Amino acid sequence: MRNPAAVARQAGTLQLLSGGRFVLGLGVGSHPGEYEAAAVDFSRRGRLLDDGIEALGRAWGSADRPGERYRQEPTCSPIPIWLAGTSDAAVKRTARVGDGWVPFFIPPDDYRTARTRLFDLAIDAGRDPASIDTSVVALVCAGDSSEVAHRAGTAWLADLYDLPPKAFDRHLVAGTPEDCAAGIAAYHDAGASHVVVMVAADETLDHFGPVVEALRSRPSTDRAEVVTQLVASPQLEPLGANP
Predict the structure, then answer these.
(1) Which residue from 83, 111, 205, 242 has the highest number of Cβ atoms inside 10 Å of its Cβ?
(2) Which helix (H) or strand (E) holds 24?
(3) Mean pLDDT by 10-residue block, N- to C-terminus, for the chain (243 residues)?
(4) Residues 46/89, Cβ–Cβ less than 8 Å
(5) Residue 4 falls within a domain, yes or no?
């Protein structure tokens, strides 16, 4: 839905400002209304993304071509592209050209299966599966009990996405902070190197803080420690907190 040259420039700026820590996440989406509002053909979204990824690479490499009239300067370090989506087309695209995979709305068991499929496709494409970062977005809602948290979280997501609450039954990690920590760890056990936590509530830090503490108190295994470091990074302290 966006011009690749403009996206390349914006991403390059963020890469410079962040000191090389920027990751660009891309996906085709699934809502025709968004494409209609942007005056872009929804039926061509896959092809447009493929062409856009190729155009991004050309733009970021333009400074290395002396004869290029319109070069993107200043230059920046390579920007990883992480692709979303669990459809066969999305997984194949990631296997071909993605630096990472970060799907949404997928339970841990399904994630494990799809990740194996991704690696098989990467080998078929002549790529080393280890070169593809496999991450995931976890929807989380913490509460006093599993029932209360699940009801609140699915209602919040239903309002956000304008879908029935039951549509999120399989995708929401809900319960006590300890339940949520276990749910996040399950994604890591399924192979996710990063777990991106999206809190399904308005009071984000009220949920996130207790879940982080629950992760820290889990048995000291390598996997639990990695998940804790990813989710409880110091950079995620609220604005105004002491360094």
Answers:
(1) 83
(2) strand 24-26
(3) 93 94 94 93 95 93 78 86 96 97 95 97 97 96 95 96 94 96 94 94 92 85 44 40 39
(4) yes
(5) yes
- 27, with CB counted inside 10 A (0-12, 13-18, 19+), is middle
Distance CA 31, CA 38 (A): 12
Distance of CA 36 to the CA centre of its chain: 24
Total domain count, the chain: 1
Neighbours of 29 (CB within 10 A): 13
pLDDT at 223: 46
Write phi, then psi, for 26 (nearest 5 degrees). Answer: -130, 150
Strand partners, 194: 135
Sign of the torsion formed by the C-alpha atoms of 96, 101, 103 and 107 = positive
223 inside domain: no
Decide if 106 contacts 114 (C-beta within 8 A).
yes
Q: Which two tokens stand for residue 180?
A: 């949520």
